[in-house]
């Protein structure tokens, strides 16, 4: 994932002499200890921030081990195991998807065939005629052809019964065949059992075809549920395999193949919501909210790793080097949304898109067909009938005031215009801060700086590190001292704010 600092710098514009894309305050803490471990440091900072009312997200979680370390071998075995289990389920899932495709093709063929039966049963003479001809052709090609030399086609072409096939298509009832005088008795004797067999076949084949279609619809529904089930089973394995994949620290000089070294990178992103402004601006209603933000990076290099439990867990008993970076920002909700969208897009592009999406993509591609064959057509027909009645009723409405107050009237246009909300797609769509918003943003920056300094300073004090004396906490004699703060007058008077926020 891209560095969130680079994303903020790219998205948040410079407004006058104030560049809110740069940190309002920045601190760095580095130490190398033979006893220090990353886990207690990470959870101390995480708990402290959350207890302070910040909403915290982990936006970076990378690790890498040198090939010569035991940690590398252990993680490689775990990844391989996850991949093997995921691929087994994926193979079964692919077979089910192929089965669904075949079922859909069969159902489409059944749908086409049943249209002929629907036309055959229709009261419309034209449809009935077309349906009858289609079914007779199907009967000749699939049923009668099995009689070999006794089939209608063979008798017509080879036995001299030239009118036999034509009469088969013309006659639609036993009475018509008896009344016709254009064929001889021998032809009638051949046609009579053929037509009787055809009429029985129509009834029987329609029943069987509809029965089979219903069975395959039920089977299709079960196969779709199986796809969802396999996808749910597969997702944890593939997700775990992706999370265990080593990434980051490309070409880092500290990572030597033969050494036993492991490196970690974690980034915490905390945000709050602020809508407070000075008393003189209380009557103004802010159209967008402003957020104080803090970004904390932890980079750890473990010197020696060793197995600490029989389950295979590794610890870094010999400690390592830790680099921590603390930054504070102030963004409005539109800028924050653009930053979060950019991080999400880059994360999706870098991650494995196969995780959990195999079934989703397959079902989305077949969604139209699945909706058609699995839904209840009776309810849809009722809805269509009701919608048609409403539409006809509205068309017949001759109320002269409907043009003014109806769904297409002038008042509805005003309402639609008000309901339309501007979509923020790029930083060009974000308006610059007005005077009140500049003040509120400065308030958010001040809160972010205060919160960030509290994390930085209290961490150092709680771990017996040297820290600044005047930090707003109690001195040894119990007296209070004020913490460094950002003054609005300094920000808008043209002075360099970086000197005030360090």
Topology of this structure?
Layout: H1 4-11, E1 14-15, E2 18-19, E3 25-33, H2 38-51, E4 55-65, H3 70-121, H4 125-142, H5 152-158, H6 164-170, H7 174-179, H8 185-243, E5 262-271, E6 290-302, E7 306-307, E8 314-315, E9 320-332, H9 333-350, H10 358-365, H11 367-374, H12 377-396, H13 402-405, H14 410-419, H15 435-462, H16 488-492, H17 498-501
Helix pairs in contact: 1-9, 3-4, 3-8, 8-10
Walk me through this protein's architecture.
- The chain has 17 helices and nine strands.
- It is of the alpha+beta class.
- It has two domains: 1-66 and 255-358 and 405-502, no CATH class; 85-240, no CATH class.
- A five-stranded antiparallel sheet has the order 3-9-6-5-4.
- A hairpin with a 2-residue loop joins strand 1 (14-15) and strand 2.
- The longest helix is centred in the middle third of the chain and has 59 residues, at 185-243.
- The protein is elongated and about 120 Å long.
- The protein starts with a helix and ends with a helix.
- Residues 348-356, 400-408 and 481-502 have low confidence and may be disordered.
Number of structural domains: 2
Oligomer: single chain
The helix tally amounts to: 17
What number is the mean pLDDT?
A: 76
Q: SSE order in H/E notation?
A: HEEEHEHHHHHHEEEEEHHHHHHHHH
Strand order of the largest sheet: 3-9-6-5-4
Residue fraction in strands: 5-15%
Rg over alpha carbons: 38 Å
What is the general shape? Answer: elongated
> Whole-Å distance between the termini?
28 Å
Which structural class best describes the helix and strand composition?
A: alpha+beta
Segments where pLDDT lies below 50 for 5+ residues? 348-356, 400-408, 481-502
Largest sheet: 5 strands, antiparallel
What share of residues is helical? 40-55%
- Please count the beta strands (DSSP E, at least 2 residues each): 9
